[in-house]
Amino acid sequence: MSCYIINYDLNNSKDYDSVFKAIKSYDKWAKVLKSCWAVVTTKTAVEVRDHLASVMDNDDGLFVVKSSGIGAWQHVECSNQWLKDNL
Q1: Contact call for residues 5 and 54 (beta carbons, < 8 A)
Q2: Between the CA of residue 67 and those of 9, 31, 44, what are the distances in Å?
Q3: Organism's domain of life (predicted)?
Q4: Strand partners of residue 39
Q5: CA 5 to CA 87: how far, in whole Å?
Q6: What is the pLDDT of residues 15-73, one digit of tens each?
Q7: What is the distance between the alpha carbons of residues 8 and 72, in angstroms, rounded to a whole number?
Q8: Angle 10-46-74 (CA atoms, 0-180°, nearest 5)?
Q9: Distance (Å, rounded) from C-alpha 84 to C-alpha 71?
């Protein structure tokens, strides 16, 4: 399984709930910052992107990248332990 970092900009859509629901459909997820999440899955980055893009508007920005396991953070919304265990 791999950890992917997800960042997005919802431009015209106010339907954050659909995006949140799609992200939370993964077995392991964490809200890192306001528009930054991490998910652990067997899917590829392209599959994660396509899944999330299916509930977003065409002009919304989306970035999905596989974590290298090395990171540093400060004042995140999720627990430090989740990041240590899953990045």
Answers
A1: no
A2: 20, 15, 12
A3: Bacteria
A4: 4, 29
A5: 9
A6: 789 999 999 999 999 999 999 999 999 999 999 999 999 999 889 999 999 999 999 99
A7: 20
A8: 55
A9: 9
Q: Which residue has the tokens 């627990």?
A: 79
Neighbours of 41 (CB within 10 A): 18
pTM assigned to the model: 0.92
Domain count, the chain: 1
CATH code where residue 41 lies: 3.30.70.240
How many angstroms from the chain centroid is the CA of residue 50?
A: 12
- For 25, the domain range is 2-86
DSSP assignments along the chain, one per residue: -EEEEEEEE-SS---HHHHHHHHHTSSEEEEEETTEEEEEESS-HHHHHHHHHTTS-TT-EEEEEE--S----SS-SS-HHHHHHH-
Q: Which residue has the tokens 């509930």?
A: 55
